[in-house]
Amino acid sequence: MSTFQAPKGTYDILPADSATVLAVREAISAPLRRAGYGYIETPVFEDVALFSRGVGESTDIVSKEMFTLTKRSSEELALRPEGTASVLRAALQGNLHRIGSLPVKLWYSGSQYRYERPQKGRYRQFWQVGAEAVGVEDPAVDAELIILADDAYRSLGLRNFRILLNSLGDKQCRPVYRAALRDFLAGLDLDDETVRRAELNPLRVLDDKRESVQAQLTGAPRLVDYLCEECKEYHEQVRELLTAAGVGFEDDTKLVRGLDYYTRTTFEFVHDGLGAQSAVGGGGRYDGLSEMIGGPALPSVGWALGVDRTVLALEAEGVVLPTPPAVDVFGVPLGEQARRVLFGAVTALRREGLAADLAYGHKGLKAAMKAADRSGARFALVAGDRDLAEGLVQLKDLTTGDQTPVALDALVATLKEKLK
Ligand code: HAM
Questions:
Q1: What residue owns the CA closest to ligand 1's atom 11?
Q2: Ligand 1 midpoint to CA 121 (Å)
Q3: Where are the domains of the chain?
Q4: pLDDT in tens, 370-413
Q5: Residue 213 CA: distances (Å) to CA of 203, 204, 220
């Protein structure tokens, strides 16, 4: 071990686990790519104001968990705590909403940073695959996104997840509800910080996990009772489209989500095998975010699924993803000349698109064969001086143990055939 450890709340993804992580990212993004979402990357840090304005001052994410970087007094940056604000910023900056037709459909994959108290499933650096559909108000887009996330999880073999669905209303009806909730909260016995939070955004208080707060919230006005006709109708259409697509969901009128930009449709994917950090993904509509960050009105919707928690969900369900071995062929040279010849053979195989490795470090036969076994390769190429003198190598099938001599110049063709 070295003097250094990965910082608190972070972890390394080592090769034994990375194949699963890559497979999860691939499985989540595949349905998006099939639905016309284009890949986008944005910087891991942005102007801090993008997040404080976009995600919201009243959220834990902005008020407590942001990793800020100050390089000059005039320039305050923050590591991104989420992807939506950055992706929308990039779409506006790149004029994507003017160049193409709407919605602009984007997907991303990357690390996010939140200074949270670490525990299982909650890290300070974690990974999301996300999708955003920018510029259209249409319940079919909301439904499309939820269906694509559901498809992604099902394709991974996950079954024990649930979709919680709610509507947070729009700029007509939500202010009325906020005012009613604020009045209600004013009559409660809350600590100073919570009172301040209630002033900034009373909906945040509904999300407070503390028993002392939750106990006082029975009897609080409910958002569903305040939704305007348009929001009710919109929500009903999303529900109908999901039902028609065979995607089950639960109405959760208490679902608020931890970010301030949401309007109308909000949803969360929760997994029952994960304990406290049960949300594997979440998202919703954010019709006002573009204007909040200085853009035109661009009603949008999106989600982000947590890769780390999806991996934990697979473990909880005992799902093992098929991960192909790193290499198909492993060279075991016996002697100096064989080393040179097999080095050439391995290079040629790789150039032909086969995955091949070689025993390095002047190993003896036993250690080299062990390395071949460990590599997961199906075949070992064993060559000693006598074989080479005849232009041969021994091809050993590592599953059956069968060994057959193959002419060196027929090696590529033979292996291609066998590995088809
Ligand atoms: P979020 O609910 O904050 O939403 O995060 C989405 C997912 O990221 C969570 O459900 C969880 O799986 C994962 N996640 C969040 N924090 C952590 C953590 N500390 N450690 C491990 N995993 C974590 C958003 O980020 C929104 N941008 C989603 C969205 C996109 N809404 C609209 N478009």
A1: 306
A2: 11
A3: 15-173+227-317, 181-220, 329-418
A4: 999 999 999 999 999 899 999 999 999 999 999 999 999 999 99
A5: 13, 12, 12
